Amino acid sequence: MTEPILSVRDLTVSFPSEAGRVDAVRGVSFDLQPGRSLGIVGESGSGKSVTSLAIMGLLDDYARVGGSIVFDGEELIGKSDKQMSQIRGNGLSMIFQDPLTSLTPVFTIGDQIVEAIRQHRRVTKQKAWERGIELLKTVGIPNAEARMRAFPHEFSGGMRQRVVIAMAIANEPKLIIADEPTTALDVTIQAQILDVIRRGQRDTGAAVVMITHDMGVVANIADDVLVMYAGRPVEQAPVEQLFDDTRMPYSIGLLGAIPRVDKKEKQPLVPIAGNPPMLIGLPDACAFADRCPLASEACRVREPELVEVAPDHSAACIHADAIADRSFRGAPVFAPPEIPESRIVEVPRSERKPTLEVENLRKSFPLMKGALVKRRVGTVHAVKGLSFDIREGEAMAIVGESGSGKTTTLLEIMDLAAHDDGRITIGGTDVADVRTGAQERALRRDIQIVFQDPMGALDPRMTVFDIIAEPLQTIGTSRDATHARVDELMGLVGLDPAHSDRFPQAFSGGQRQRIGIARALATNPKLLVLDEPVSALDVSIQAGVINLLDELKATLGLSYLVVAHDLSVVRHLADRVAVMYLGEFVEIGDTDDVFDDPQHPYTQALLSAIPIPDPRIERSRERILLTGDLPSPTDEITGCAFVSRCPLFQTLTAEKQAICTEQAPRLGGENGAHENACHHR
Asked: What single DSSP character describes residue 66?
C-alpha cells in the first residue's frame, strides 16, 4: 500500500447561528489512495459539501474547523488563505456544481484557463494558451482554437462543465474534488462528463472525491463509498461490497428509494419517512433513530461508532451484524407501501376517453437583433408539428435533452391559446372555441400544472391554506366548502391539515411539493401537467412524491403529462413515452416497448447514458456517447436533424447517408403502437 494522498481524521466543522451552534460535520475520517475514487453520498444537509469545502480551505472565516486534513504529507488545517492558494488549482483542484457561477462572464474561456495555468507555472502566455487548446481538446470541445476566444455564455451547460474540468486538470493535480458535477445536466451530457472525469483521472493519475446524491453515478465511477448522515459517516466500504452487503438502514433506504431504469416491474418505491434532524444540540443517540424501522431503545442510549463489520467495511449501527441482504430477521428493512391498482387500466386504451389531444402543434419565435432598431434576423423553431393524445388514467412523458422543446410544448398547452396551424383539445373542448373569460376558467379547471421548484412556485407571504384555497376562491367556492376541501386535500397528499396556517418556509422540500400538488388538485382536474416534479428533491423524498403521484392516478383516475430528464423516474411513472429531439418526436410508444426495444439511435443513446445503481451492471454495459450538442433551433434543416450526432449515420453507405441528409424522416411503425422517425428503422 502506498501512502494516502489524502488523509482526513476526525474532521469537525461548526457554524454559529441564532439558534445555536450548527455542527455541520462531526468526526469524518477516511484515507484516499492515489488514483482511487471515493464517492461521498447522502441527503442534503448531511455534510458532504461542507467536508469538501473544508478540504479545499474555502469555508467562511467564522467556521470552526477541527481535526486533521493531510494532503500529500502536508497538514492543511491552520494554513492561511494565501498558503492554500498555492495548493488550490495546483496539487488540489475542485469541480463545482454550477459551472456558470464558477466562470467569470467578462473574461474569455482562454483568458481564464491561461490564468489558472500561469498562477502555478512559470510559462509564457503563449505556452499557456497552447496548453489551454490542448486541454479543451482533451475534454472533447470541438474547434478548440476558436472556442478559446469565446465567453462562458456562448457555451452550453455541458460545455461549460467541460471547461471547468479542463481548468481542474490544467496543472495535473494529485486530487480532484467533484461536487455534484452532473446534477443539472442531461443524461447524455452527464455520461460525457463522467467519461471526461475518468479520462482526466487516467491522464493525470489523480485521486477523485465524487460528491453526489445519485447512487448510479457512484456505481459508475467510485472505487469506495462513504455514506454520510447528519454530519457523520454511517457506512464506508468498497463500492461493490456496499451495494451487495449493505449494513446500515440509512444506506439500504437510499438504495431502495431509487427508481431503476432496468426494472420492468413497477413496484412502489421505498421512501425514508421523516426528514434529517437539525444539526443543533443533537442528543447522544443514533441520529437516524427517528426515521429507522429497526430503531429500539438501545439506539437512543448513545450514538453508535463507525466500526468494522466486515473486512474493509464499516457501519455505524448496533444492528449491523443482524442485517443481511438488506433484510432484518428475514423481513426487508424498509417495506414498500401498498398502492391500489387502478381500475381504469383494465379498460383497453382505445376505449378510454382522451383527456388531451394535440394535433400538429407548432411554435416558433422571431430572432431579433439590434439595440435601438430591432430587426428580425431569423426564426427559432421550438416545436415542429407534434401530434399525440393522452387517455383517461394514463401518464405520458416527454423526454429529451435541454433545448429539445419539451417545456415549450407544456407552456403552449397550458396557454389555452388557439393556433393558426394545429389544434389542442382538453376534455373534448377545442381551445379554439374558448372565447370568453368564463369559458377559459371552466376549461382551466380541467388542466393544472405542478412546477419543478416547489419553493419558487409557492408565494412565501401566503399560508398553506391560502395557497391551496386560491383556485377554489377563483371559481366561487363557498367559505365553508373551501375549508373542508383544503383539509381534504392536505390529507390526500399526506400532510397534516392542522398545519394549514403555516407558511411554506416551515416545510421541507418534499412537503412543499405536496402542497403544490394539493393546490393543483383543488379544482378536480382531469389532467395534471408535471414539469420535472421531483428533480429538485433528495432521492429519499423523491420516492415518496412518486408514490403519491402513482396513488393519485389510481384513486382519482387522473391523467399526467410529464416532462423529466431522469429517465429512471419516467420508466416508473409513465405509461407512454415520447422522445423529443429539436422540436420533433423521434420515437413514441408504450413505456416498456420504448425502454426494452429502443429503435431510434437517439433513444438508444439516451437509455445507454442512464446510470444504473449496480456497479457490476453499470461498468460492464455498452455505452453510446453522443458527441457535440444539439444543433441550433434556428437552423433550416432539410434532412434528419440528428445526422450530426448520429452514431448509426457513421456506419452507413454513402447512398444511405444521402437519404439521411436530404430527406426528413417521419414517424412510422407497426400499427402506430411503437413509432420512430428513422429512415433505417
From this structure: E
| Statement to judge: residues 276 and 424 lie in one domain | no
pLDDT tens, residue by residue, 354-410: 999 999 999 988 888 876 777 887 888 889 999 999 999 999 999 988 878 898 899
Q: Which long-range contacts (CB under 8 A, 24 or more apart) does 238-245 make?
A: 238/312, 238/313, 239/39, 239/615, 240/615, 240/616, 241/310, 241/312, 241/313, 242/313, 243/219, 243/613, 243/614, 243/615, 245/310, 245/313, 245/324, 245/325
| Dihedral over alpha carbons 174, 177, 181, 183 (to 10 degrees) | 150
Q: Pick from 362, 386, 510: which is nearest to 450 by CA? A: 510
Domain boundary among 592, 619, 640: 592
- The answer to whether position 642 is within a domain reads no
Cell of 166: 479542463
Say yes or no: 267 and 194 in one domain: no
Residues 588 and 508 reside in one and the same domain: yes
Q: Which residues contact 436 (CB under 8 A, 6 or more apart)?
A: none
Q: Summarize pLDDT for 162-192 with one digit per residue, the tens.
A: 899 899 889 989 999 998 888 767 788 788 8
Q: How many CB atoms lie within 10 A of CB 366?
A: 11
- In this predicted structure, what is the pLDDT of residue 625? 78
Is 391 contained in some domain? yes
Number of separate domains in the chain: 3
The answer to whether 136 and 166 are in contact (CB under 8 A) is: yes
Q: Are 511 and 416 within one domain?
A: yes
Q: Are residues 63 and 175 both part of a single domain?
A: yes
Whether 348 and 327 map to the same domain: the answer is: no
Sheet of strand 576-581: strand arrangement: 447-450, 527-531, 559-563, 395-399, 576-581, 584-590, 674-676, 668-670
Distance CA 370, CA 665 (A): 36
**578 vs 223: CA distance, rounded Å:** 36
pTM of the model: 0.87
Terminal-to-terminal C-alpha distance of the chain: 53
Could you tell me the CA-to-CA distances from 404 to 166, 413, 560, 563, 582 in Å, in that order? 27, 16, 20, 11, 4
In the beta sheet, which residues pair with residue 369?
375
- Domain range spanning residue 280? 248-332
Is position 565 within any domain? yes
Q: What percent of the chain has pLDDT over 90?
A: 58
Pairing of strands 313-315, 323-324: unpaired
CATH of residue 139:
3.40.50.300
The Cα 121–Cα 110 span in angstroms is 16
218/257 same-domain check: no
